[in-house]
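Researcher: Re-running this chain for the archive, since the previous output was lost when a drive failed. Same request as before.
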Amino acid sequence: MKIFKKSLSHELINSAGAAFLILIGIVIAQRAGNLIRLASKGILPNDAIVTMLGFSLVKFLPMILSLAIFLAVLMTLTRWHRDSEMAVWFSSGLGLNKWINPILVFALPVIAVILVLSLWVMPWATQKVEDYRVQLKSRDELATISPGVFKESNNGERVYYVESYDELGNVVKNVFVQSMQHQKIGVIVASEG
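Model: Regenerated structure tokens:
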């Protein structure tokens, strides 16, 4: 009986690990694509992508872990039926109720982690995301300019364009600024600034 339980636990852990990695990859790809889209439109600064991605992963972690447990049990049970390992399990005198105990031993620690993530870590991460967004909005609008993208100011009175930054990021090259003051349009062009 120990051999069966050890084999079941080993397969559950392997299946859960594989499902977890695949689901994390999907979430990272989807969230990163969305954040890069926002950064390319100038809604989100480029230096905020990694931070926002990290907070998104923390928010989705309970759901990913829940899906990983479910998929691990489903894939293991399916494979054991397909490969006739359940027939061996039943023919050795072990019932289906003996199959539940190793699954609970596997799932309960992960369920405890999901509980902690859901009750404490996820609300903290959600609050930090909101605080970070407020901080990003209060930043100087010049800090959100991306090279090669026209950026309109928050009040709509200015349009900025910067072709590139120098190696250190302190000097901008080929600057264009159009501003509206007293119902008159002014244009500033400089090779660097």
